[in-house]
C-alpha cells in the first residue's frame, strides 16, 4: 500500500466517524467504489475490538 492510499483510508475513516455519509466520502476522496470504504471501516472497527479485548485480558 502506498502512502497516498494509507492517507486516503485514514481520511475516509475520520470523515465517517464525523458522520459524513459514504457517498459524500467517495465524492470528496474521489473513490469510485463505495464498497471499498465499507471494507476499510469494517477492518478498522475489527482492529479496535481486538485492541480493547487485549487490554481487558
Structural class: mainly alpha
Query: Average pLDDT, to the nearest integer?
Result: 78
Main pleated-sheet profile? none
- List SSEs in N-to-C order: HHH
Low-confidence stretches are: none
Percent of residues in beta strands: under 5%
Discrete helix count: 3
Judging from the principal axes of the Cα atoms, what is the shape?
Answer: globular
- Please, how many domains? 1
Radius of gyration: 13 Å
> Oligomer, anyone?
single chain
Distance between the termini: 32 Å
Helix share bin: over 70%
Number of strands: 0
InterPro entries: Homeodomain-like_sf (IPR009057)
Organism: Lactobacillus acetotolerans
Protein name: Transposase
Would you kindly provide a written description of the structure presented here, covering whatever features stand out?
- The protein has 57 residues and is mainly α.
- It has one domain (3-56).
- It contains 3 helices and no strands.
- The radius of gyration is 13 Å and the shape is globular.
Key traits:
57 residues; 3 helices
SSE layout and pairings?
Elements: H1 3-17, H2 22-28, H3 34-56
